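#help-structures
NK: newbie question, is this the right format to request a structure? protein is Gnk2-homologous domain-containing protein
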Amino acid sequence: MFSSISTLMTVKQATDANGVHVDPASAVCRRRPAWCLLAVLLLAVVRTSLAEPPVYTPFPARCSTDNNFTAGSTYQVNIDKLVHRLRDGAASNESFFYTTHGEKPDMAFGLVMCYADYTWENCLFCLDHAVAWVGAGCPYSRNVSVNYDRCLLRYSDKPFFGGLDLTLTAWVRSLTNATDAAGMNVVRLNLVGRLSCEAAGSPRRFAYGNHSYVDSTGKSQVMYALAQCRRDLEYGECNGCLNHVREVLEQELPSDTAGYLLGYSCYVRYNLTGPMEIIQPPSLG
């Protein structure tokens, strides 16, 4: 289980003179019958809102603030068309796509990528939300990079394809510490290092694997990990990004039994809790 932050909304319970719990709507009805219907309706609204799922939001995005475009400008029109082309392109290109739209000086460059440990449906769900979010989330920004837990979207008024960006946008850790942190770190270092080389040399810029070991307490463990890069990166850039993440893992998640780091160029996830569900996109047939 990964740690998370959530907001919990509660409704104070009503009690009668004997301290017995009374439904809030019932208590209001007995005291002021004329308010009965209103109380029941209000409570129904509160209960419904408590059951609503949280809004799907990205990690903090990088939005440029200088040289912003204006509403209705040619660049805004190009971006609006670009982000929809990116979503459709990823859907027909195995969850990754990059392209341009428009002519200089208003040309827009864009890229999207889905992460391999989510279903194809989750990939498209994420891309739909990213496309819908950027306009309001980064209004009038000429350069935007935004990461969700399932996908990445970037666009700019300058070329960035093939360029390495070592910015890390999120690291998420488990709630459980390894009993043998030192042994786990050695295994993680070696496993992620091996997968980094495999991912960098793969056409999909992705690798997944595991390593079995016995920790210092004598318990058998199996670590699972994945490494993934943007597919526009060459071998050296991909391998360099993943090795950078490997070093940060050792510093920031020294004893967690599971965790992941997301950046604008690559992604690493590992755990000691069982195999990951790696979902391949549907065949292009």
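mod (FA): yep, format's fine, and the tokens are attached above. The CA atoms of residues 258 and 271 lie 4 Å apart.
NK: thank you!
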